Amino acid sequence: MARTPSNMLPLGTKAPNFELLDTVSNKPVSLQQLKGKQATVVMFICNHCPFVIHVNAALVQIAKQYETKGVSFIAISSNDAENYPQDGPEKMTEHAKKNQYPFAYLYDETQEVAKAYDAACTPDFYVFNSDLNLVYRGQLDDSRPGNGIAVTGNDLQNALDCILNKTENTKQQKPSIGCNIKWKK
Fold first, then answer.
1. At what angle do helices 154-164 and 50-67 cross, to 10 degrees?
2. Above 60 in pLDDT, residue 1?
3. 3-state secondary structure of 134
4. Inside any domain, residue 125
5. In a domain, 65, yes or no
6. Helix, strand or coil, per DSSP, at residue 119
7. Antiparallel, parallel or unpaired: β 177-180 and 39-44
8. pLDDT digits (tens, 9 = 90+) for 104-158
9. In angstroms, rounded to a whole number, what is the distance separating the alpha carbons of residues 94 and 51?
10. % of the chain beyond a pLDDT of 70
11. Whether 181 contacts 143, CB under 8 Å
């Protein structure tokens, strides 16, 4: 398991716009269509990464909890599906249904969206405010496969609570750690 950290896009960065295929509805959707009224969480994930598998249940739970508060969650897989067929669109559809994703699971075939967000690993999290300005990037929490720390989602939830409560997030933002995005050669 390669341990790749987030690149930590500068805070205040405007969310790069995109239109990608939603592998669940099989329709193209844009950031503008999916953004939340209060906040938008963009997550770079994939099907096979042990770091993502480790937090999948928490992602579903947190998304369901915050959706009712005007927060939108968007999952994107940018892995090279030619060399990693388990991360292709058909498998993404199966994966989203099996895990009961309450959010769109988008396929970034050209990898342009991952590059625009400077995404490096799976999972990689970005939280944008209602104006789509970046207010948090990094890890879900301190848990990693095998480190014995429970998955809580505290870092992500703290960032969302700060937006919802209109308070400054003073907690240190730590990079996520995960498998590297599988770039096309």
1. 30
2. no
3. strand
4. yes
5. yes
6. coil
7. unpaired
8. 999 999 999 999 999 999 999 999 999 999 999 999 999 999 999 999 999 999 9
9. 19
10. 99
11. no
In a domain, 185, yes or no: no
Structural domain range at position 129: 4-180
Burial class (CB in 10 A: 0-12, 13-18, 19+), 118: middle
By the 8 A CB rule, do 38 and 163 touch?
Answer: yes
Residue 124's nearest CA partner among 3, 1, 5 is 5
Query: 20, 34 in Cβ contact below 8 A?
Result: no
Q: Do the domain assignments include residue 149? A: yes
Give the span between the Cα atoms of 164 and 39, in whole angstroms. 8
The length of the chain, given as a count of residues: 185
CATH code of the domain containing 130: 3.40.30.10
- Which residue, chain included where needed, has tokens 């991952």? 114
| Rounded CA separation 131/40 (Å) | 10
Q: What are phi and psi of 175, to 5 degrees?
A: -60, 145
Smallest Cα–Cα separation from 151: which of 43, 60, 53, 55?
Answer: 55
Token pair recorded at residue 102: 């309450």
Q: Report CA 70 to chain centroid distance, whole Å.
A: 17
Record the pTM.
Answer: 0.96
Q: State how many domains the chain has.
A: 1
